[in-house]
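A favour, since you know our structure tokens better than I do. Go ahead and set the record down below.
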Amino acid sequence: MNMATRPLAYYAHSSMRQGNQIKVLIPYTIMTFEMTVYLSFEDIYGFINLQEISANCILVYMRYLEELCRINGQAEKFAFVSPTLVSPVRIDTEDAGMRERADSLISFMRDAPKGRLYLVPHNRGRHWVLGVIDPWEDLVLYFDLLREKKRDDFTELMNMVLTDWKIMTGEGIRRRRDCKTKISNRPCPLQEGSVECGENGLAM
């Protein structure tokens, strides 16, 4: 256990075993609408023990990163996209279709200024990957701690999103409609086990 997480571990063991939860408000800047997330003992236990972590933990950490960017004057540079908007398996429904997920992300990026990067955690089924979208450059950086080549769902989603985004903003007029978005695999540490993708993905 990391020394930095010991106070959290103590709190979880002493106060959360009876079903108590930590209430966290997720702002509309991450979800397009405000929502409340409740972290359970299981959520906290997985986080502090470097086990498989939930979408709720990802959301709460993104809220922290957004606040950090605001404090450091970088709020306009980065935007954080809720994994519940884009992942095939979501909190609010058992399964979300490709078109529904694409429309959610397009709506989120509707007024994207030039230079803003969108950080998109994506869970394709018990494995977290991270996409960083630069819509004006038609570029997606892809981070996968397993370094797997197969990313069909993510690739299809990104092509659909950025093709429609270019048309919506008028950028599509200056580009061929069938031009594929560039998705670039980026170097990142190789995870040692099978459950560290969320934990290490947050650190990236």
In short: The chain is about 40% helix and 20% strand. The beta strands are 22-26, 35-39, 78-80, 117-123, 128-134, 139-143, 182-185. The helical segments are 6-15, 28-31, 41-48, 55-71, 83-86, 98-108, 152-169, 197-203.
